[in-house]
Amino acid sequence: MLGLLSVLLAIATVNMLATRSQQVQVDGFEPLRIDEVQAVDRLSEAIRIQTISPQDPASFDPAPFIAFHQLLERSFPLVHAQLEREIVSDYSLMYRWPGADPSAAPIILAAHMDVVPADDPSAWSHPPFAAEQAEGFMWGRGTMDDKGALMAILEATEAMLAAGITPPRTVYLCFGHDEELTGSGAAAMAKLLHARGVEAEFLLDEGTGITVGMFPAVEQPVALIGLSEKGSATIELLVELEGGHSSAPPDQTAIGILAAAVARVEAQQLPGSLDGPFRQTLDTLGPEMHGPLKLVATNLWLFAPVMTRALLASSTTASSVRTTTAVTVIEGGVKANVLPPRARALVNHRINAGDTVERVVAHVREAVDDPRVQVTLVVGNEVPRISDAQAPGFSTIARAVREVNPEVLVAPGLFVAATDARHYVGVAKQVYRLSAFFITKQDVPRYHGVDERLSLEHYAGMIQFYGRILQAS
Ligand SMILES: [Zn+2]
Question: Are the CB atoms for 131 and 45 separated by under 8 Å?
Fold first, then answer.
């Protein structure tokens, strides 16, 4: 036994020492000429317009969206003189920029103009819609999610037009207006593109930011290009029994039956797995790691079970290796002395690559294992098709990241939130997700939370990043 173990360890060590960095090598590049002060001014105007997707779609206010369109027209005169622009679904914007080679498959850059509300402005260090600049950041709702990207894409486009640079491929810019609700604007633009027979080489939408200090055993910042995103399934557990007076109750009321079912669902989580894009993340980052984790990550043939167990141990890492389970709603009971006729719970799952909505429903039904509990799927979204990290679009994005930020490592991954990108799988061969600003663990709660902010230095880098993608063949 000991002999076998030392042989395996010896093989693993040899493997580890044989791994080489898979990072694309880049040279310097000619940056686009940008007036950074003016670019930041334009971004602040964009932040001040409150293009809110309200929790209740009935209270949607179109006025800020029209003001936003007008701001773009004012801010980017060359874009609006030289690109074709269509208003889709009333407020979404789609631009077409013919490339030098009309026979080459186009590319699509996507972003969204709507933001979530800022429910508690007094909790912010700077008011959410004032676009104040302090400590090298612009503070405000939408700086990270996702007006920063939208404005950076247009800055790069305007600068290329000013310099007389034509993109090699035809470019579509697709800016949705309701990503934070249903993404109907993106869906409508995708439908239009499909009807016109467009099949893009790749699409790039928002995703994980370039993470700093968030990967164990990796020193450098890491840009995870999302090959797909998690799916979701909301499942209802419902118990309906005869009511009656509580003076002669059965052993279990509807609430007791439901509570026991909920406890079983929580106790029987879906299994973890390293399959899917996360495996590719580890394969790519393994050679860049240091310490004992490097031995593990570069030898998943041996250590996959150990690695999976370690990742499942913490809720922050568990979500990257399994379909998550969260009981989010429970209701039942009417009065202290009345048996509840009905008790109901909602369980929200975020589906990992490799799982399906059907499999999650079957798992929950099995865990509940009680015919008195009705298990029903309320809404389900499958994991979108997983894009190819070997396709040319991936290296175009990876190259752009490292040209602008040579210290950053690039790896494929799975994005844990939902984006407009999922609507475009039918019109692009590959769909990638990445936000090109840097984030630390402390920045994660800023998404949809208080004190959302964007580093002005990173903003300048974002403009160059999109410029590199637009100019790549
Ligand atoms: Zn977003």
Answer: yes
The reported pLDDT for the residue numbered 194 is 98
Distance 341 CA to ligand 1 centre (A): 41
Instruction: Give the residue-averaged pLDDT of 317-324.
Output: 90
**Nearest residue to 272 via CA among 222, 226, 325, 235:** 325
CB 250 within 8 A of CB 323: no
What is d(CA 114, CA 117) in angstroms, rounded to the nearest whole number?
10
In this structure, what token pair is assigned to residue 268?
Answer: 């029987």
What domains, with CATH codes, occur in the chain?
Answer: 36-216+384-471 (3.40.630.10), 228-381 (3.30.70.360)
Tokens describing residue 295: 């031995």
Cα 146 to middle of ligand 1, angstroms: 5
Distance 325 CA to ligand 1 centre (A): 23
Phi-psi region of 255 (alpha: psi -120 to 50; beta: other; left: phi over 0): alpha
Separation of CA 29 and ligand 1 centre (Å): 29
Residues 411, 398: Cα–Cα separation, whole Å: 8
Distance in angstroms (rounded) separating the CA atoms of residues 142 and 179: 12
State the pTM of this model.
0.91
Mean pLDDT of the chain: 95
Q: Which of 114, 180, 206, 451 is catalytic?
A: 114
CA dist., res. 459 & res. 349, Å (int): 34
Q: How far apart are CA 472 and CA 389, in angstroms?
A: 17
Tell me, what's the pLDDT at 171?
A: 98
Alpha helices in 298-391 (DSSP H): 300-312, 315-318, 357-368
Find the catalytic residue in 145, 155, 179, 205: 179
138 Cα–ligand 1 center, Å: 17
CA of 178 to the centre of ligand 1 (A): 10
114 annotated active-site: yes
Q: Is 61 a catalytic residue?
A: no
Question: Which residue is listed with tokens 């450098």?
Answer: 220
CA distance 270 to 364: 9
Give residue 115's pLDDT band: very low, low, confident or very high (50, 70, 90): very high
Residue 55 has pLDDT above 80, yes or no: yes
The predicted structure's pLDDT at residue 8: 87
Cα radius of gyration (the chain) = 25
Instruction: Read off the tokens for 387.
Output: 């894009």
Give dist(CA 223, CA 337) in Å, integer.
58
